[in-house]
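Handout, tutorial session.
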Amino acid sequence: MDRKYISKIAFFYSLFLILLSLVPIPDLGWPIFKLFEIDKLVHFVMYFSLTILWCLASENFYKSNFKLLLFAIFFGFALEIFQHILPFGRYFDLADLLANSLGVIFGIIILYYIKKKLL
């Protein structure tokens, strides 16, 4: 598949994550730290997918994987901060941030081993 096409998909997927993370929802009250619930699995899969897309879009995975790791974790952290700051009924959730970060880390590890096997 063409790298430019994958880059466009990754860009629009990132915009989708921003929208999904900042869309107003009904007030659910203060967060309770729960790591093992379906919401955290969704966060994990979404950031795993984000990492896979951006890795496939990058020119040289081995040179950019650490930058991507830092960027994707910062991206999730920034969205959590915006959820807390903006008046949309959202809140900062440490468990969401942990699930996001684990999805990013797992995505990088999986791609590293896949690309190592292919090369």
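The second record follows below. Compare its token runs with those of the first.
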Amino acid sequence: RTITRSRFRALSRGFRQRWMRALYTHNLDVFYRALQYCAEHGISRYRVTSDLFPMSDYALGQKLIAELAPAWLHWGRAQIEGVRVLIHPDQYVVISSLSDKVVANSIRILEHHARVFDLLGLPRSPWAPIILHGGKRGRHDALKRIIRELPEPVLARLVLENDEHAYGAQEVLDICRATGIPMVLDIHHHLVK
């Protein structure tokens, strides 16, 4: 479940915390049931939605995540066992953008995803990847520089993927070799390009 920003802002301040706590708890329950299903049916990978915690960029969302975190670790370890969890942030996460504001916001989003993965007890490695496309075409040097400057919890999990428009497989491979991060080959993007 999710909520739009306008709907969130329309909630009374007194009701927001109860509503968001219920939403986050519901989404965590669904997340862990999905992992349990994967484990029971031999599915070894699960792509978690970027909207697991909507409005988590608000102070209230961050507060609730921190409050709920201890229970997640205890509750979720068994379900996570044997299932790789990954995330592929929305297309608006562009660390190679020409806009400094977009880059800064993209890094904040990546840091948030890394913090959530830490709270879920997922390893700081490509085993629990944050998968990104290259973003803005022709920004190879900027992309390499920004990747090298990413905080460790993000960088340890970062994996680049080719796309059909801006960064083909060879370009992504070259960037990955230069920065020391892994690549995932999306054969569908490759064939379309």
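Points raised in discussion: The longest strand covers residues 45-48.
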